[in-house]
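User: For a benchmark we're assembling, each entry needs the component sequences followed by a predicted structure for the full assembly. Here are entry 17's components. Please fill in the structure.
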Amino acid sequence: MIGVDWGTTSFRAFRITANGTIRDRRDGSRGIQNLPDGRYSDTLREEIGPWLAAGEDRVLLSGMIGSRQGWKEAPYLPCPASAADLAAALVDVPFTWARVKLVPGLSATDDSGVPEVMRGEETQVIGVLAAFGGGGIACLPGTHSKWARVEAGRIVRFTTHMTGEAYAALGGHTILARMMREGAPDPAAFDSGVTRSGEPGGLLHHVFGVRALGLAGKLDAAASASYLSGILIGHEVRAALPAPGTVVHVIGTPELTALYARAIAACGGYAERHDGEAAARGLALIGGHASWG
Amino acid sequence: MIGVDWGTTSFRAFRITANGTIRDRRDGSRGIQNLPDGRYSDTLREEIGPWLAAGEDRVLLSGMIGSRQGWKEAPYLPCPASAADLAAALVDVPFTWARVKLVPGLSATDDSGVPEVMRGEETQVIGVLAAFGGGGIACLPGTHSKWARVEAGRIVRFTTHMTGEAYAALGGHTILARMMREGAPDPAAFDSGVTRSGEPGGLLHHVFGVRALGLAGKLDAAASASYLSGILIGHEVRAALPAPGTVVHVIGTPELTALYARAIAACGGYAERHDGEAAARGLALIGGHASWG
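Assistant: Structure for entry 17:
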């Protein structure tokens, strides 16, 4: 089958064998936001045409392609949800050259009843946690980081943290902007920020410290971005880590999972890092449960 | 004497009697950032000329006018510092028509050794807390909110919280911007945000909830700005309030002190609200200790 993780800004397709092995892949920037006037069908055919010609006829799509702004809306499925539950809720999309189905996103509420949604991450979480006895905690860092809990193969709840976007907004649109100079990541400054996030005073005080330390000559411009990143990621991890000693499966790019692994270790957890192929494994698992007719 | 609270964007002058009563005042926008090429001397003469003509010859300035970017730099005085300590560290400025002195800012370190500075707020804190037995907690909300502790007439420590600027950056430069519509303040939404700040998940999760609640139709655009404000001010107050039952002297505009008073009460403290004349009283007190030669 063919699995596609089709997001807002990226398009990643995998040709997958029945047992989940990736035979071939395509990565590109043809996310839904980068396509003119909903050219989804033509784009898909252009990207995976050679695989269709080679005999593939099942295509499973996950990510923002199934949102209201995408090809067709696949309504959110409420948690808890397993790979089989997701497979039973797939939405068909008309496509001349193969059967195409969309994975729905998931909805949940946090402990206080505030609603949550995810779209695309559910497939990555399923892809990773099936390999670990069907249970655990997954973290997908990014613009809007997700933390999900899986029990007995079902995603039971999750929360979102606006960490990546808060980093960009605070570092780029406040008085901190003039202290910042993007440079090579500074692991020592990042670690200091993570430590800082555990001290009294709260996040809004800690971020002001980026300026105060800079003014006092105790933090140079090149280190300030890593220090701010450490403060914010540290606050996220401390709020989201369920208990000391928890194993967290971190899914994402090597750069980001490395930072989160450092922060999780500093906050008393254990991190297992996973790369972007989590999506391919999740698509294979959900596709394996699906009724292709 | 004449006291002037001369900040980055505002100029507020007071003609004060020997016992601290305000006889006359001038408010304007001639802050140091709004003046061409350091026209400080001319501006001061234009603003207070009639009072000088009436016989005043002592002028005390507080605020950013004493910064490196101002008229002349008045180096930070380390905490703890009383009105008398500040008076002993005044910096003279040449001015043809009267004796002019600058109040220095204060420096401190927080409980973790991170440096802090203030300039202008020290005078307002002195102005308020002298009336309350010389001790207590003051909060000056704003772009960079300050919380100061006064013991026996001396400012002993303070912290800064980037609340106002974080509100502008998160509300204006993230995905929340499209949920927001500035409108009349919504007290119920503000209170919900303050309550939210005390729930699990942390600030970065709570701010994402502004979007999640909006998407779910549970928070309308007009209420979202007040809700975000409540989340951020709630986090500030919870981090800065020393203990339940603490009385906090909140100094600022009526709009802002009203919001902080609501949040402080919701977080278990008691708020006493003070207006901008705190600066005039502080200038009178410090001026009364000064040696005018």
